[in-house]
Write a structure and sequence with these properties.
The protein is mainly beta and 124 residues long. It has no helices and twelve strands. The chain is flat, with a radius of gyration of 18 Å. The relative contact order is 0.19.
């Protein structure tokens, strides 16, 4: 099965010998793609919290969907944690916009091994 996509490729012209390209998909099967910002503060565990922020992976607009997300927390108390997951389904608003809820548990890390809980809503 072939699905038509459109997008663009960006070349990084760094001065070092390693260069990269980033592919930005703008439509998937004729539907425009979009992303959401997300951020928050983790639960208080082992005497501290962490902040986090990121951007979801793209998903098609105009249809029910979820987004994958991935980021790292701030470096607090000598360590950081990884956050990754999949948002809930789109929650549509009367103005036609939408947001997603997300929640989960960080990876285990720290001098005293522990994890944090996190939850929130994406931007619209």
């Amino acid at each position: 099965m072939k699905i038509p996509i459109t997008g663009f490729l960006v070349h990084s012209d760094d001065s070092n010998s390693i260069h990269s390209h980033s592919l930005y998909i703008s439509t998937w099967d004729g539907k425009p793609m979009h992303v959401h910002q997300f951020s928050g503060v983790t639960s208080f565990d082992v005497g501290h919290t962490h902040q986090y922020a990121g951007t979801t992976e793209p998903a098609p607009s105009g249809v029910q969907h979820t987004h994958r997300y991935f980021t790292f927390t701030t470096f607090n108390d000598g360590h950081k944690h990884e956050i990754r997951g999949v948002t809930g389904l789109a929650i549509f608003l009367p103005n036609g916009r939408h947001y997603h809820e997300f929640s989960g548990t960080t990876t285990v890390n720290g001098a005293i091994p522990h994890k944090h809980m996190y939850s929130g809503n994406t931007s619209m």
